[in-house]
Amino acid sequence: MKFWLDVEEFLHFWKSGQNKERAEGLATALVNYELAASLYKGDFLEEDIYESWPALQRENLKEIYLVILDKLSRFYALDGKPQTAIDLCEAILEKDNCREDIYRRLMHCYYKIGQRDKAIKQYRRCVEILSKELEIEPTPTTIELYKKIKNGQIK
Question: pTM for this structure?
Answer without folding.
Answer: 0.85
